[in-house]
Amino acid sequence: MTLPLKKPEVVSGIAKPKISLTGITKTFPGVRALNQVALDLYPGQVTALIGENGAGKSTLVKTMTGIYQPDEGEISIDGNPVSLSSPHAAFKLGITAIHQETVLFDELSVAENIFLGHAPKTRFKTVDWKTMRQKAKTLLDDIGAGHILPDARLKDLSIANKHLVAVARALSINADIVIMDEPTAALSYKEIEDLFALIELLKKNGKAVLFISHKFDEIYRIADRYTVFRDGELVGHGMLADTGQDEIVQMMVGRSVDRVFPKQQVELGEPVLTVSGYCHPTEFADIGFTLRKGEILGFYGLVGAGRSELMQALIGITKPSKGAVRIGDDIAVIRSPAEAIENGIVYVPEERGKQGVVVDLPIVQNISLPSLARTSRSGFLRMAEEFALAREYATRLDLRAASLSQNVGTLSGGNQQKIVIAKWLATQPRVIILDEPTKGIDIGSKAAVHAFMSELAANGLAVIMVSSELPEVMGMSDRIIVMREGRIATVVESDGGFNAEVLVRAAAGIGEKAA
To answer: What value does the mean pLDDT take over residues 154-176?
Structure first.
C-alpha cells in the first residue's frame, strides 16, 4: 500500500493551520503551568516546540491529547472549535502522540497495539484477527519496518522498534496531527536517521507534526517552524530558516547562555578511587583507572560500550568476576549499593524516572531518603531536620518547585535530575558517578548542572561523568576514558583541550589516518 499524498490546504496563498491553540491557560495548585499560550501546526510541516524543563511543554501536550482540560482558551481543527474532553476524543479527531517512552502495552502483540481501540471487525462484530495482522504488516512495510512481525510481543522489541510501532499506530488511524515528545532520547545514531526518514514521510503525507527536543542539531535539521515557551508563556515563534540558534536560546532562558560548560580549573589532589583489573563475565574486562580529588573524569563511548554496566558494578548493583577497588589507601569490598554508599560512592543513574526518584513521594522525602540516620533520633523521624536537609540541597541546586511537599512526579525532567543529585550529595560522598547527567534536559538546566558539577569538583569531590554527548564530555572533563566493546580503548588527557575526531575514532574502533 502506498499512502496517498496530501497537499496543505491553502487560503489566499498562505497555508492554513491544521490545528490552532489560542489563549490556552492551565493552572495547578500554586503553579500556573500555561498562561495565554498559542500554537499553530501546519499540514506537511514540522513545528519544533522549544523551552526549558518546566516551560509548559508537557502540559501543552497533555492538553492537546485530552489528558488535561484548559482553564481558558480555544482549540480548533481546520478552523472549527473542538473539545478534547478525553484522550479518546483527541484520538478520534486524529491526534496522536509518540513519546520518549512509548505509551504502548508490552504484553500485547504489535498488531494489537497498532489497532487497539479500532480493530477491524467481522460481520459478527468480533475482532477480525486475520485482517488486523494483514493491515498491520502493510503499515509496517510502508514505513520500512517490515522486519517487525505483527504477532511479536511488544516487550520483545527494542526502543527504536517500539517507536516504529507507534508511528504505524498513528498511520492506522490516519492521524493528521502527530506529536513527537523527545522521540530520539534513547535511540542510536542509525535509529535516529531512520526516525527522521519517517518524519519526512509524515510531512510528504500532509501530517502536521509537533517535534519536541532539546537537541538543536535535530531541530534545525527536521523542523520548519519553531515556537518557544518560557515559564508557561509564549515568547517567540517563526520560521527556523530566519532565526539563529543563539536567538532561540536567549528566548528560552531569558538571558544569554555564553558558557554552557562553565568548567573551573582545579588543582587535583590525592587519589580517591583506584580500580584495578575489573572484569565482568559479559559486560567489560580489564578495567583500570585512578580518580583523584577534585577531578572530573569523563567516560565516553558508543551505545553498548559497557560504560553504564561498569558504573553499576562499581556501586554494587552487579557483581564483577574479578578486580579490586581502593578508596584512598584502603581496599573496599562493594557487594551492594548500601556498601558503596558506606564507602562514600554514590550513583546518579541514567534512568532517573525509574531508578533515581520515587515519583509518588514529595521532594522532601526523596532528598532525605538515603540520609534517614541523620534526620532520625531513637527510631523516630524528626520532620524539622528532614525539611532543613532537603531545603539546604534544594537551594544549592536552585530547584524550581512550589514547595518541598510537591510530588516529584509533577516536576520537569531537569528538576527531577536536580533532586537525584541533591539526595546523594546529602550523604556527603567522596565520589559521585553521574550517568548521562543532562539526558533529556534543556540547555538552561544543562548549564546549571554543569556549573554545579564544576563547583563540586572545586570543593574536592571526585566526579565520574558518563556522557554520550561529545561537547559535554569534552567541555567538562579533566581526562576522558574512551570505552569500546567493554574495554578501555584509550585514555585522553586534556592538555588544553580535546580532539573530537580522536575520541570518535577510538570509540568506533577506527584506526589512525594514514600519514
So the answer is: 83
Q: What range defines the domain where residue 147 resides?
A: 104-173
- Please compute, for residue 503, the number of CA atoms within 13 A of its CA located in the half-sphere on the CB side: 25
The sign one gets for the Cα dihedral 129, 130, 131, 135 is positive
3-state secondary structure of 442: coil
Q: How many domains does the chain have?
A: 3
Read off the pTM: 0.59
Helix segments in 237-304, DSSP class H? 245-253
- Residue 282: what are its φ and ψ, rounded to 5°? -125, -15
CA atoms within 13 A on the CB side of 12: 0
Among 94, 413, 407, 448, smallest CA distance to 261 is for: 448
Per the CB < 8 A criterion, the answer to whether 409 and 359 are in contact is yes
Structural domain ending residue among the three candidates 124, 155, 173: 173
Give the model's pLDDT for residue 432. Answer: 93
Could you tell me what percent of the chain has a pLDDT over 90?
41
In a domain, 263, yes or no: no
Which residue did the predictor score with more confidence, 57 or 262?
57
Residue 488 zone, left/alpha/beta (φ > 0; ψ -120 to 50; rest): beta
* Statement to judge: residues 393 and 478 lie in one domain: yes
Q: Are 419 and 367 contacting, i.e. CB atoms less than 8 angstroms apart? A: yes
Structure confidence at residue 450 (pLDDT): 86
| Burial class for 248, CB neighbours closer than 10 Å (0-12, 13-18, 19+) | buried
For residue 475 the three cell numbers come to 567541555
Pair (380, 492) in one structural domain:
yes
pLDDT at position 208 is 95
Looking at residue 362, the DSSP 8-state letter turns out to be B
Residues 202 and 67 in one domain: yes
16 against 15, higher pLDDT? 16
Same domain, 417 and 479: yes
- Structural domain includes residue 261: no
User: Does residue 326 sit within a domain?
Assistant: yes
* Range with top average pLDDT, 207-221, 358-372, 392-406: 207-221
Question: Which of 481, 12, 457, 509 lies closest to 262, judged by CA?
Answer: 457
CA dihedral 228, 230, 234, 238 (to 10 degrees): -20
Can you give 465-504 as a three-state secondary structure string? EECCCHHHHHHHCCEEEEEECCEEEEEEECCCCCCHHHHH
Rounded to an integer, the average pLDDT of 330-336 is 89
> Which residue in this structure is represented by grid cell 563547583?
455
Q: Does 256 have pLDDT greater than 70?
A: no
Higher-confidence position of 111 and 406: 111
